[in-house]
Amino acid sequence: MKGYTIVGGGGVELNVVETGNPAGRPILFIHGFTQSILAWGKQIESDLANDFRLVAFDLRGHGRSDKPREQEAYTETKPWADDVNAIIGGLGLERPILVGWSYGPLVILDYIRYYGEANIEGAHFVGGITKLGSEEATSYLTPDILALVPGLFSTDAEESVKSLDSLITLFFVKGCSAVDRYLMLGYESNVPPFVRQALFSRVLDNDDLLSQLQIPVLLTHGDEDRIVFPAAAEQIASVTPNAELHQPSGVGHAPFLENAPEFNARLREFAVHVGSEKAVGA
User: Fold this and answer.
1) Which end of the chain is more exposed for a tag (fewer CB within 10 A), N or C?
2) Is there a contact between 66 and 60 (Cβ–Cβ < 8 Å)?
3) What CA–CA distance (Å, rounded) separates 80 from 250?
C-alpha cells in the first residue's frame, strides 16, 4: 500500500492510497457522504489487487484530506472536478474506471462536466444519486434518511453521533459487526457538520450530461436500499445511453460491504469487458 498527498482544486491537499498491480487497469474509488477511504477496504484488500491498479482517496472535507471552511469549496462544481483530475494526472492513471458510491457519482459527473470523458474508460455508480436540491431529487431519498438530516447537520456532538450511528444502520439489510460499526462511526465522526451541510446545499441535475455520455456506465443498486430508492438508478438508466442496471438482491445501500464477493466479481467483469471493448475498437 502506497500513500500520497495530492494537491487538488483550490490547493486542497487530498489523502490518496494505492495498491494492486501497477500494470493493471486503474480503478479509482470515490466514497460517499461522510465516509472515507476505509469504506473500500473489502475491495482494496481483495483479489482485485492481483489484476488491477486500485486507487482511493478521501474526499475534501473527509478523512485525512483538508477540510476548508469556505462553503464554496464544497458547493461549486469545479473544485470536485479538479480533485479527480489532479489524482488522475498526478498518478498517471491511464483511462481509469471511476467507481462512486452514493454521493460519489455526483463527484464523477462534476469531473466529466469540466474535463470530459477522454481520459476515463467507464464509470460505476453504486447506490448513487445524480441530482440534488430539487423536489425530484428529494423524492429519490427515503423518509428514513430524510429524518436523519437535522442530526447529521447538528453541531451538538451527542445528537450528531446518534444520527451517524442510525445512518450506519440504514446502510445494511442484515446489519454489520460491532467492529465494522465502530470503525465506520469513527471515520464518519471525523467529518465536520459544516462539510455535511455544504455537500447537501448544492443544486444539481445531471440529466443533460448523462444523456450525452459515451463511456459505459454500470449502475449497481441494492434492491433493499433504505437510503436511496432503486427508482433513482432506474431513472439514471433511462437517460444514459450506455448504462447497464444491476440490482443485486438482499442487499442495501452498501452492496460492496454487505456482499463484497458478488460486488467485486461484478466490478471485475465490468472492468474486463470495458477493456476488451477498447481492444476490439482499436
Assistant:
1) C
2) yes
3) 33
The 10s digit of each residue's pLDDT in 111-164 is 999 999 999 999 999 999 999 999 999 999 999 999 999 999 999 999 999 999
- Residues 138 and 163: their CA atoms lie apart, in Å, by 19
Q: pLDDT, tens digit, for every residue of 164-176?
A: 999 999 999 999 9
- Residue 188 and residue 148: Cα distance in Å, rounded? 14
pLDDT for residue 181 is more than 80:
yes
Half-sphere exposure of residue 60: CA atoms within 13 angstroms, side-chain side: 31
CATH number for 2-281 (one of 3.30.70.100, 3.40.50.1820, 1.10.1840.10, 3.30.210.10): it is 3.40.50.1820
- Quick check: 259 and 247 in contact, CB under 8 A? no
Secondary structure of 160-222 in the HEC alphabet? HHHHHHHHHHHHCCCCCCHHHHHHHHHHHHCCCHHHHHHHCCCCEECHHHHCCCCCCEEEECC
